[in-house]
């Protein structure tokens, strides 16, 4: 029984829920500002002076079997939420991983992760 207790304690320490920001509870103005945050690739930013504010990571997570599937759109929107929260005016080089199942780091049945760089333009 000590082994079982040890496994459960370890599981609680290692398996962390993926952070997910829900846009549903936001005002229409805030939601529109987040969803409208532009995505850029390096070519689109050529000649435009900008600075990286921070890296952002959006995660779409299917926590329970009966939940809807994880989607790339939800992961992108979460990355936009985090970027906007940091005062960014866009995200560059956003890349999304293919869907994955459970890992030791997330308790999602299925998840999609998108990572990019939040940017601000020089004034």
Give the structural class: alpha+beta
Please outline the major beta sheet: 4 strands, mixed
User: Which consecutive residue ranges, at least 5 long each, have pLDDT under 50?
Assistant: 1-19
Order of helices and strands: HHEEHEE
Summary?
This protein has helices at residues 2-14, 28-35, 72-85; strands at 39-40, 50-62, 90-96, 110-121. By secondary structure, the protein is α+β, with helices and mostly antiparallel strands.
Structure write-up:
The chain is of the alpha+beta class and 123 residues long. It contains 3 helices and 4 strands. A 4-stranded mixed sheet has the order 1-3-4-2. It is globular. The model is unreliable at 1-19 (pLDDT under 50).
Task: Please specify the SSE layout and strand pairing.
Elements: H1 2-14, H2 28-35, E1 39-40, E2 50-62, H3 72-85, E3 90-96, E4 110-121
Parallel strand pairs: 1-3
Antiparallel strand pairs: 2-4, 3-4
Descriptive key words:
3 helices, four-stranded mixed β-sheet, 123 residues, globular, alpha+beta, single chain
